[in-house]
Design brief:
With about 130 residues, this protein is of the alpha/beta class. About 35% of the residues lie in helices and about 10% in strands. A two-stranded parallel sheet has the order 1-3. Helix 1 runs antiparallel to helix 2.
């Protein structure tokens, strides 16, 4: 659609310059150029400020393996083991950008794997010895 619009504007500018004098063609081309520039700036500002896309693609590939955990954000505490008991609150999830191993395009490998884009405060993947 953008190509068709651009081609029709170019043809219209050529026709204006051929059918009318060059001064009028110059003025029309200046106005069209200014309007196009303002539209381009508005489109760039919208593209930079639009909300992030939510959905399954935002979190990356699915975790592979039984009881694996993967997040598109940070994780405070991830527990994949059985019989673990904790006292106190979970640690804060690290802020984005502090992770030394961000989630790449590959899924979390193996059983009980844990990965997060924003980092992991605590990951407990082993079984505890608490009796119920």
């Amino acid at each position: 659609m953008v190509c068709v619009l651009s081609a029709s504007v170019a043809v219209a500018l050529v026709l204006v310059s051929l059918l009318v004098d060059l001064d009028t063609g110059d003025r029309v081309a200046s106005v069209v150029g200014a309007v196009t520039g303002v539209g381009g700036v508005a489109l760039a500002v919208y593209g930079l400020n639009r909300p992030a896309q939510a959905g399954p693609a935002a979190a990356g590939p699915p975790a592979a393996g039984a009881r694996s955990v993967q997040s598109g954000r940070g994780i405070g505490r991830a527990v994949t083991g059985d019989n673990n008991r904790f006292r106190g609150p979970a640690p804060e999830a690290p802020s984005p950008g502090t992770s030394s191993d961000p989630v790449s395009g590959a899924p979390v490998p193996g059983e009980r794997g844990v990965a997060a884009v924003g980092g992991i405060g605590e990951a407990v993947t082993g079984d505890g010895n608490a009796q119920e």
